[in-house]
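With this grant's support, the team has encoded backbone shapes as discrete tokens. A representative record is reproduced below.
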Amino acid sequence: MTPPSEQDARLHELERELTLLSRHFIASRGPRIGQSLDRSAYVLLTRMETGEPLTLKELAHTFQADVSTIHRQVGTMLRHGLVERIDAATRAGARTFRPTPLGLERLEADRAISRAGAARLIEAAGWSDARTQEFLTLMVEFNHGIERLEELSRDHAAELSRDHAARPADEPPDAQ
């Protein structure tokens, strides 16, 4: 058996460390006590708050999920008043969605709990502000690289919307 190359060994270690980071970060927030959003609503609202309203197709592309999955999640969020639907004739008739003030308020409350967990992890690591900033810079670069690789940029999602009008079957149920 051939020993692994240095690159294979690094990739093995990177995969392990990313898995541990994910587990530690989620665990650092502790039980969901005080958090009001489920994971899917938290993730969707985090993306939706960053710019223009998005279609279901754009959200599905961004999260590499089936439109039916996003449809279900956004429909639940509509019923709970976390997002609102906007009829946008300027986007080939596609309906777009944006967070409501309630959705943004609940996101920020849950985010405060998440930030406190991140602070506990940084404190446990014994990192200075400079070391934390270095880690943040590397994570941002890493995530941007992934977005380029997967064509998940906001601009690409907007292109998808222009090129492909959403079908009525892609729309969540009314929030009534």
Remarks:
- Residues 122 and 128 are 8 Å apart (CA to CA).
